[in-house]
Amino acid sequence: MPKNIYRLFLLAVAVVFVLTACGPKVTTAPTVVATEPPVVPSATEPPVTEPPAPKEFTFGMVMVGAKNDHGWSQAHYDAGLYVEQKIPGAHMLYIENAYSGSPVLTGTTISQLAEQLVAQGAQLIIFNSDDMKDESTVFAQNNPDVPVIMASGDQVWQDGQDYTAIPNMVNIMGRMEFGKMIAGCAAALTSQTGKIGYLGPLINAETRRLVSSAYLGAKYCWAQAGKDPAALMFKVTWIGFWFYIPGFSSDPTQVANDFFNSGYDVVISGIDTTEAMTEAKRLNDAGQAVWSIPYDYKGACDQAPEICLGVPYFNWGPAYTETIQNAMDGTFVSNFQWNGPDWADINNPDTSAVGFLKGPALSTENSATLDTFIAALAGGLNLWTGPINLQDGTVYLADGVVATDQQVWYLPSLLEGMEGQSVSQ
User: Fold this and answer.
1) Is the pLDDT of residue 289 over 50?
2) Per-domain residue ranges for the chain?
3) Which of 107, 125, 124, 68 minimizes the C-alpha distance to 330?
4) What stretch of H or E contains 237?
5) Is the pLDDT of residue 35 over 50?
6) Parallel/antiparallel/unpaired status of strands 335-339 and 354-358
């Protein structure tokens, strides 16, 4: 190779070397490792909020009779259970058989029994008997911060005869006059002898107006059936108390038997217990056509359905619930309540203060007639409209005159046409 060409060859190699050494350095591309997307914290769920616990409220009840007497006191006891059901947190304490001469009252008084319930936590007290009227006043006045319900009393009725301002008391009573009218009608429709007996408790204004209402209902339906009102015999015999107390009251079993054995084929009870039902069933089982109408308690017919024409009863639950709720809410206000039936449905447990539950012994025909009578009452028929005379013939309501609430509540005697005592001897 010529010398010049060789030199050019070497120079070219050198240039290539220099260019290669000074150029960009090529490296292997890095391996890319796939990764999970970043975890985004989820939104925080709101904490579960427990509903607030119901406000606790304890109410006490002093009952004249037993909670299972199938009558007056059981109706009140069941009303207390109704309150517990309707008001979350409400709880009932009670004392039974608080009547004069009862072992429960040995060495104590009704008002002191109520004090015992307060000591056990009661924040409201219910007295359930007219027999407790004076003692309920004593308790209420001695405990002005404790709300009081006095069932059947009239102390805080501003238009009443015995009004006393007691800011922490409510009087509650049902217009049982309607229930007794319906009972009297059922008795008159059923009686085959035209002789209706009434087993009465003690004698006072309440019991006079109730038995007289039964008589008015009986006389009306007897006459509507085309029978002579003068031929209807309606007699009341009083035992001396709301139920049998040996050595103190007459025996209601004997009184019921006296009625049935002397031709009275229907006995309406005005006492708290069911002796008339027991005797009617016994005689019916022996083949005698007799019937009875108990009192106070919705389930009373269950004892002897085959002789039961129906039962007028009190439903204290709605009024007790409203009043106790007011006490819990701080809106308790003294007032007088004389609550009537819900004529849209007299047996509605949530709205009707009094009702009448027909008994199985009431015939289909008489049941329909009774419905007509109830509808007439709902439509405004008022049997407390003159002419009405008292038992001795004194005019009480002139012809066409409608009785005031006070004239009905404070009826001074039985009515003309009725047999029996009007006042205690």
Assistant:
1) yes
2) 57-174, 177-313+354-419
3) 124
4) strand 233-238
5) no
6) unpaired
| Residue pair 275/253 in contact by the 8 Å Cβ criterion | yes
Q: 57-174: which CATH topology?
A: Rossmann fold (3.40.50)
Question: How far is the CA of 388 from the CAs of 72, 113, 183, 228, 385, in angstroms?
Answer: 30, 43, 20, 17, 7
The token pair that represents 163 in the structure block: 């009004």
96: its two tokens:
């039974």
Q: pLDDT tens across 150-171, in order?
A: 999 999 999 999 999 999 999 9
Q: Which residues contact 311 (CB under 8 A, 6 or more apart)?
A: 183, 293, 294, 295, 296, 297, 298, 300, 301, 356, 357, 359
CA dist., res. 366 & res. 364, Å (int): 6
* Count of residues in the chain: 425
CA–CA separation, 378 and 344 (whole Å): 8
Query: Does 8 have pLDDT greater than 50?
Result: no
> What average pLDDT does this structure show over 22-36?
36
* Per-residue pLDDT at 9: 40
Class of domain 177-313+354-419: alpha beta
Whether 57-174 shares its CATH topology with 177-313+354-419 is answered: yes
The pLDDT assigned to 47 comes to 61
Q: Can you tell me the distance from the alpha carbon of 242 to that of 214, in angstroms, rounded to the nearest whole number?
A: 18
Give the model's pLDDT for residue 247. Answer: 93
Separation CA 113–CA 103 (nearest Å):
12
CA atoms within 13 A on the CB side of 212: 27
Tokens 């060409």 sit on residue = 5
